Amino acid sequence: MTGGIRAAISIAKKDLRTEFRTKESINASASFALVILVLFSFAFDIAREEFYAISGGLLWLVYSFAGAMIVNRSFARELPNDCLDVLIASPVPAWSIFLGKAVAAFVLLLCVELLSLPVFGLFYNIRWLGVFWPLFAIMMLATWGITVVGAGLSALTVNVRLRELMLPALLYPLLIPVLIAAMQLTTALLGSDPVNLATDSEMRLLLVFDIVYTSLAMYLIEFILVL
Amino acid sequence: MREKFTYALGLGGLLLMIYNLHTIFTVLPDEAQQGAIGRMLFIHVPAAIAAYLFYTIAVVSSIAFLIRRNFAWDSLAVACVEVGTVFTFVNLVTGSLWGHVIWGIWWAWDARMTTQLMCFLLYLGYLLLRPAVSEPTQRGVMSAILAIFAFADIPIVIMAIRIKDIRTQHPSPVLETGGLDPTWWPPFLIGIVALALIGSALMLVRLHQETSQREMDSLRRELHAI
């Protein structure tokens, strides 16, 4: 178990190091998030106060688009030079390869989210600093949900024709519960409605989703990678 | 023999359906508050129940495929998902028609409607994925895993939507609360059986096609090898 976790940490570190050196997916998804944020300002022509009512929805749509771009690269990055085969043949359990990949994608997506949050606040005049920590807790839980399902589907679709098209088509319907809960919570927080994170049922839903899919994906990844 | 059985199932379902439609339209009175459109209940709800039945068989056979690696399970799973998706579609369309008459709108973002739509989209993804993979084992494993993922998502979607949507418009479940008139029960139950039989016949046809397709593929590969 500890060996597996150590291997997962090394894989996550390797992924993050490659990413921070090449910056291929983080640059693309951060600038994509920015473009979407700008586009939304044209899409909705509404008064400033009303922006609070749609703020959670806006923010999580941006995050989920950025997330799909990041997880798309997660396993596809290993395709050149047959790196994926070497990873699978290496003496580490399949779940630690998956966990490493998921953690790396999680950190990357969280970076993109933290980068685009101030821009979002600035463009739409939304005050978020006062509720940053509860918002961060929601971001952690929902982002893990996005990346754990995303990394699983990324492994699943890595050898599929039209991978770039297939992944979002499979990912978004599965993510609906996470997005509903995160959007509701974020809108409530930014609109300064009282939210008690410890007892909130949406928070519990995020937790349930994370636990169910983390365990399912870690168990099933063996079948996905070793066909 | 197998073909005859399939036809018998389909024919039995069809006859039951015709008999049931006759009862629904000529014997039963209009629903007190909804009028004639209340009869939609006898198609709408059985379609949903039949869909869930086929989805359940699909997930069980997907798990069996992952364990046993017998392609018969894979064919069964895809056949069931296809039939389930068709029934979900029937459920959505009949619900929408009913809503148009009773509510005056085609679609309301109500808890149960949204859940059904999500189910439909999830399994549409499954059907999209299959043709994109050409290698049979890979296709089987991938779709089995996706079927498990999708099935696990359904209860969470239901939970999410229940939390979000308190102001539900959908009629409350008359079946569990005993609000259904005793004379309405037989056509309702016959509706479920009829749709399940028709669905099984369709499923068997698809199963047969899948099996033949796999045989043809393996023959083609053999030919290439020679």
- What is the CA-based Rg of chain A, rounded? 18 Å
Low-confidence stretches of chain A: none
Number of β-strand runs of chain B: 0
Protein chain pair with the most extensive contact, residues per chain: A-B, 31 and 30 residues
Helical/strand content category of chain A: mainly alpha
Give a verbal description of the structure.
The complex is a heterodimer of chains A (227) and B (226). Chain A is mostly helical and 227 residues long. Chain A contains eight helices and no strands. Chain A has helices at 2-22, 24-43, 48-76, 83-89, 94-124, 132-157, 163-190, 201-225. Chain A is globular and about 55 Å long. In chain A, 46% of the residues are buried. By secondary structure, chain B is mostly helical. Chain B is built from seven helices and no strands. Chain B is globular, with a radius of gyration of 20 Å. Chain B starts with a helix and ends with a helix. The chains are: A mainly alpha (227), B mainly alpha (226). At the A-B interface, helix 6, helix 7 and helix 8 of A face helix 4 and helix 5 of B.
Write the layout of secondary structure elements.
The complex is a heterodimer of chains A (227) and B (226).
Chain A: H1 2-22, H2 24-43, H3 48-76, H4 83-89, H5 94-124, H6 132-157, H7 163-190, H8 201-225
Helix pairs in contact in A: 1-5, 2-3, 2-5, 3-5, 3-6, 3-7, 5-6, 5-8, 6-7, 6-8, 7-8
Chain B: H1 2-27, H2 41-68, H3 71-102, H4 111-129, H5 136-164, H6 174-177, H7 185-225
Helix pairs in contact in B: 1-7, 2-3, 2-5, 2-7, 3-4, 3-5, 3-7, 4-5
